[in-house]
Write a structure and sequence with these properties.
- It is a single chain.
- The protein is an alpha+beta fold.
- The chain folds into 2 domains: 169 residues, no CATH class; 77 residues.
- The protein is 41% helix and 18% strand.
- It has 9 helices and 10 strands.
- The strands form 4 sheets. Strands 1-4-3 form a 3-stranded antiparallel beta sheet. It has a 3-stranded mixed beta sheet with strand order 6-8-7. A two-stranded antiparallel sheet has the order 2-5.
- β7 and β8 form a beta hairpin.
- The longest helix is centred in the C-terminal third of the chain and has 18 residues.
């Protein structure tokens, strides 16, 4: 491996060993839109996420923003409480009598005027060209404080909810890991997450962003290491060999200059 990359990787591992890690800094988020679903129950939001969208609304709600449900689109159903008045004198006292299923539709199943969050531009991020070379779709989604980014190995897609370079690097590392292994373990596998974050921390150093992201990386790795009942340092050593392979694939798979980053 390139000596500079190996030196940076070794330095991060050593900092994890000594505890010389700066206090974590909160990552910046793309604007969080005021979506109807932000007021939904956890159960209903979960149903929405499972359906593959971050924004679902009723038919009239879509019409109010000049969007229209495509013909043939299937609804996603959420539970809505039903109340009845308990004051016979016409007062406002209400009692919950049960729930009813209400149809909502995914933003992906609508057409019409663009939504505010659809107009967020993808920032210029080093190595983003590597994602495009690998046939990955990279697009912006509005921040929602639930995650900063995601990678789908089946859709070959990276979603970014933050302009921070480390988010793209983390998701790009997941794809490189998938290319090496052939397939990733589904869900938030601790070793896969630790590997991706260690790779991202190294890439951040290469582009001069370590002061903004290293504290977050340590906390992230420490959290997943605790699930394995090992220390953050032990966890990084455990994935070091595979992380080196991932970095080599990202940085040198075609040429020595990648996405505006010269190694």
């Amino acid at each position: 491996m390139n000596d500079k990359v190996k030196s940076i990787l070794d330095g991060i591992v050593e900092q994890f060993k000594t505890g010389d890690i700066p206090e974590a800094i909160t990552l910046g988020m793309f604007p969080v839109p005021d979506l109807p679903s932000s007021k939904w129950s956890l159960l209903n939001r979960t149903a929405m996420f499972i359906s593959g969208t971050m924004d679902a609304r009723g038919y009239k709600q879509w019409r109010s923003v000049n969007r229209y449900v495509k013909k043939g689109s299937k609804a996603v159903y959420i539970l809505v409480p039903v109340f009845r008045k308990t004051n016979e004198d016409g007062g406002d006292d209400l009692a919950l009598t049960g729930f009813t299923a209400k149809p909502v539709y995914r933003s992906e199943d609508t057409d019409g005027e663009p939504l505010d969050y659809e107009q967020i531009e993808l920032p210029e991020i080093p190595l983003i060209s590597r994602a495009k070379e690998w046939g990955l779709s990279v697009r912006v989604v509005p921040g929602n404080y639930r995650y900063y980014g995601s990678y789908s190995q089946t859709k070959k897609e990276i979603l970014l909810a933050s302009p921070d370079e480390s988010v793209l690097f983390h998701e790009l590392a997941h794809h490189a890991d998938k290319l090496i292994k052939g397939k990733l373990v589904g869900g938030q596998d601790p070793l896969q997450e630790i590997t991706a974050e260690l790779a991202a921390a190294t890439l951040c150093r290469l582009v001069g962003k370590e002061s903004d992201s290293l504290g977050n990386s340590y906390q992230y790795i420490e959290n997943y290491a605790s699930k394995l009942k090992i220390s953050a340092h032990t966890a990084t050593l455990k994935v070091l060999s595979n992380t080196e392979k991932i970095l080599k694939l990202i940085l040198f798979s075609d040429q020595e200059t990648t996405g505006g980053l010269t190694i």
